[in-house]
Write a structure and sequence with these properties.
Mean pLDDT: 96
Radius of gyration: 18 Å
Strand content: under 5%
CATH superfamily: Ferritin, core subunit, four-helix bundle
Number of strands: 0
Order of helices and strands: HHHHHHHHHHH
Largest sheet: none
Number of domains: 1
CATH architecture: Up-down Bundle
Number of helices: 11
CATH topology: Ferritin
CATH class: Mainly Alpha
Distance between the termini: 41 Å
Helix content: 55-70%
Low-confidence stretches: none
Shape: globular
Length: about 250
């Protein structure tokens, strides 16, 4: 039976991991954006995510209380100890693929962070309040580009539609809850993800309809991240992200 400390730790790590891995993926657009403005926008959103990851992982380390830091949690854990949503670790693909992924994630994060602003845990509420301001911009950016690509050329519409079709099977996992959620929900620390489903899918449906994109259909939903089971891509991300720490353990600069 998981105790409260263990539940808060895993919950914080999950929030931090989602932001960290998504931020790492967005950083791959640095110097590769389709236009200079988007190169800067995507890179800045990557920094927003990494900043949020640092805040949540720092608090997680404090809760764990064994002398580790947020850097230890980011750079010294193995793949099975990460709990980020599978959607965050998928390759960036082309620009339409990244925009589709950004929309699916930012709509969820906007609702999630707004709800967490009311958390009974003051630190979580504070991090969520700061993050919500950033995520609202991420959502606006993704929504505007979804409309531009969806209503643009036949090529841009086709690529965007294909991206949503490929990514849709990963959205169900966003709402999965486990033991830590049940423990923390009772104390008002976490949020009931089931309550986010309706506003999430309503928002996505509205944006896609306005963008001439058909609602995707999935025969099944991918899952596994809550148990540390991931796609083949996370291992490659970690081998790159953790390389320096593993090559020169505990190096001081």
């Amino acid at each position: 039976m998981m105790n409260k400390q263990e539940a808060i730790f895993k919950y914080l790590v999950r929030l931090g991991d989602c932001a960290l891995i998504h931020g790492h993926r967005l950083s791959e657009w640095c110097s590769r954006g389709p236009i200079l403005e988007e190169d800067l926008a995507l890179t800045n959103m990557a920094l927003d995510n990494i900043g949020r990851a640092q805040a949540f992982l720092k608090y997680a380390a404090e809760v764990q209380g064994n002398g580790l830091s947020e850097d230890d949690l980011a750079y010294k854990r193995d793949e099975r100890a990460f709990y980020n949503n599978l959607l965050t670790e998928l390759p960036i693909g082309d620009f339409a693929f990244t925009i589709a992924k950004q929309l699916l994630l930012s709509v969820f994060e906007n609702i999630q962070m707004q709800a967490l602003c009311k958390s009974a845990d003051a630190t979580i509420a504070g991090i969520a309040a700061k993050s919500h301001k950033e995520v609202r911009y991420h959502l606006t950016h993704a929504r505007d580009w979804t409309m531009r690509l969806g209503k643009g050329t036949l090529e841009s519409n086709t690529r965007l539609q294909q991206a949503f079709n490929q990514l849709w099977m990963y959205t169900g996992e966003l709402f999965e809850m486990y033991e830590e959620d049940a423990i923390l929900n009772k104390q008002g620390i976490a949020i009931d993800l089931n309550e986010l489903k309706t506003p999430y899918y309503n928002t996505i449906t509205s944006i896609l309809n306005d963008s001439n994109i058909k609602m995707p259909v999935a025969d099944y939903m991918q899952t596994g991240s809550r148990k540390g089971i991931h796609t083949e891509y996370l291992g490659h991300i970690l081998s790159e992200m953790q390389y320096l720490q593993r090559a020169y353990p505990d190096a001081k600069w």
